[in-house]
Amino acid sequence: MIALGCDHGGYPLMKEVIKYLDEAKIEYKNFGTYSEDSCDYPVFAKAVAGAIVNGECEKGILICGTGIGISIAANKVKGVRAALCHDCFSAKATRQHNDANILAMGARVVGAGLAVEIVKNFLETPFSNEERHIRRINMIED
Ligand code: RB5
Hints:
Structural class: alpha/beta
Largest sheet: 5 strands, parallel
CATH topology: Ribose 5-phosphate Isomerase B, Chain: A
Radius of gyration: 14 Å
Number of helices: 6
Strand content: 15-25%
Bound molecules: D-ribose
Strand order of the largest sheet: 2-1-3-5-4
CATH class: Alpha Beta
Helix content: 40-55%
Shape: globular
């Protein structure tokens, strides 16, 4: 199950991501927001982060205007590793090396076509499970 969250700035791109998830029959839980009315990104970052750390969802996707505020907010929650990615290489590498559990993107930064490719790379790439990466991830948590 994928947890979704965005603010008003991220909403237009989130609609495109949802279109892809529906087509690909990937299950998700949408924590909002549900319109372009102005709202506060930490609310949605915290809802998605909470769903990850309580085990309700396996991964998350967060979108705001830049992806910056919403990723900063999510990364305040212990156990969350939110990666801001605007290219496919980073989306793949952050899964392999950081075992990132949330993908963050900026709707005002990246177009829908690329964003969907980034989502695919993020969701389809497994963690490498290599000792050095596990060690480094554990050092983040300590
Ligand atoms: C909202 O205007 C914008 O500040 C927000 O979406 C995000 O970019 C913050 O980092």
